[in-house]
Write a structure and sequence with these properties.
Length: 451
């Protein structure tokens, strides 16, 4: 698939909807539409989570109105349409039983909290390998293998397992729980704000986050009680400490609209704070809720926990293994911070030194921003999470010269590599793929496959 400027196809869209099943597709869109109409924070979060399906649906609607609409599609829409076309081509190439496996994966992505992101991550990973001269076999679908892909080039073979990891796994306070709390409080808060005009800041310290529906209901009752009694603080209980103050932000004016506050609030409370703004447009009143957990987010650690499980369960050790991760439920600011602070890179490098990584020679990580083709600094889709090989299979240039992915696969004993092609500042912006330093320790007697 041409990553630079994929050309969408109306026929591919129609065929993809048919692959999903007309009933399942329409049912999913009806469900998402119902959530969006509620106007709740959880509904808006659902729109973001299911942006892929909604983007394809919008594109289908445009095509129905005007077949020339595809020429005006955004880059993200063109990419998603191209991946949908690849899903159709994959289905057509598979025998009946593997084709049913693919359909089941699609239906799982259109049910409940599932999404199509894992499937499109798989398709993107396969397309990247093909674009660099690798032959790709969908071994997971075709043969029921634990890994997803078997890639081969110039006699070297590797198994690739694709994982989609939610950043929620590394957050003491899940965003979903925060959205649910705000939605439960908001109706009463609107009434309270109408009766108490002003600008308020409710700061919440949650030592351990919110641990389930019971704690969520208890915290809601405490906040409602604090407001009803017009108290400034509630430090009772171990679950949370609540403090109500006037809203005073550097540079903020009383006439500021609520929409202008998020950037100031984020700057004051930091990237890990959970924020919500309720406003009364008639009086100009604003109520801000800001929650912090005493424990830091451990998103990088959550990724490595998933890597460890995948290495043990999905890589046999018969051939070098590659883990391709897509990190979900991160926003632009959080994803950029993870990359620039090298948290994810450092955690993955430490993982590769552990015994559990004995079957792994490389790890790549991306987010939906790269999947959708976002440019820097949000994403890094100038290339892809695979090194660009030269004619002989080695990198064209850069710090990793002589230590390409192909070298690792062919030798069976990966050599250390500092960075991928590009200097360290570029690498710090986005780590495409990290190679393991040290020998490949797969199953006893295992060797890299050669022709």
């Amino acid at each position: 698939m041409p990553f630079a400027d994929p050309q969408p196809s109306a026929a591919a869209l129609d065929a993809f909807i048919a692959l999903c099943g007309e009933s399942a597709w329409r049912g999913r869109l009806a469900d998402l539409g119902s959530r969006a109409r509620s106007g709740s924070l959880s509904g808006r979060a659902a729109q973001h989570r299911h942006a892929l399906e909604l983007a394809l649906a919008r594109l289908c609607d445009k095509v129905l109105d005007d077949r020339r609409a595809l020429a005006r599609a955004s880059l993200a829409e063109r990419r998603l349409c191209a991946f949908a076309g690849e899903a159709v081509q994959l289905a057509e190439s598979l025998p009946p039983i593997p084709r049913d496996r693919l359909r089941q994966e699609i239906l799982a992505g259109l049910t409940g909290e599932g999404t199509l992101i894992p499937l499109f991550h798989l398709l993107r990973t396969a397309a990247q390998f093909r674009s660099r001269g690798f032959a790709v076999r969908f071994a997971g679908l075709a043969e029921g293998a634990p890994h997803d892909l078997l890639v081969e080039r110039d006699g070297a073979t590797a198994a690739v397992a694709c994982e989609t990891v939610s950043a929620e796994e590394g957050r003491p306070l899940h965003r979903g729980d925060w959205y649910a709390l705000v939605d439960r409080i908001n109706p009463g808060l609107q009434n309270w704000l109408a009766a108490h005009p002003g600008r308020y800041l409710l700061k919440m310290t949650l030592p351990e986050g919110i641990g389930g529906p019971d704690q969520l209901a208890g915290l809601q009752q405490r906040i409602s009680g604090l407001l009803a009694a017009e108290r400034q603080q509630d430090a009772g209980g171990l679950q949370a400490v609540l403090k109500l103050d006037p809203l005073i932000l550097a540079g903020a004016q009383a006439q500021d609209q609520a929409g202008g506050l998020p950037a100031r609030l984020r700057a004051q409370f930091g990237p890990e704070a959970h924020l919500a703004v309720t406003a009364d447009s008639g009086s100009g009143s604003v109520f801000v809720m800001a929650a912090r957990v005493t424990r830091e987010n451990e998103i990088a650690a959550a990724v490595c926990r998933r890597l460890a499980l995948a290495a043990e369960r999905r890589l046999s050790g018969r051939e070098p293994g590659i883990l391709s991760v897509l990190l979900e439920d991160v926003d632009r600011t959080e994803w950029q911070a993870l990359r620039e602070r090298l948290e994810l890179e450092g955690a993955v490098r430490r993982f590769l030194t552990a015994p559990v990584a004995r079957r792994v020679v490389a790890v790549s990580c991306a987010s939906r921003l790269e999947l959708f083709g976002a440019s820097r600094p949000d994403g890094a889709e100038g290339g892809s999470p695979l090194p660009q090989p030269g004619p002989s299979g080695g990198p064209v240039s850069g710090a990793g010269a002589g230590h390409s992915l192909l070298d690792v696969m062919r030798a069976g004993q990966p050599r250390p590599v500092a960075e991928m092609p590009g200097n360290p500042p570029d690498f710090a912006t986005f780590f495409p793929m990290i190679y393991k330093a040290g020998p490949f320790l797969g199953r006893p007697g295992a060797r890299t496959r050669t022709r």
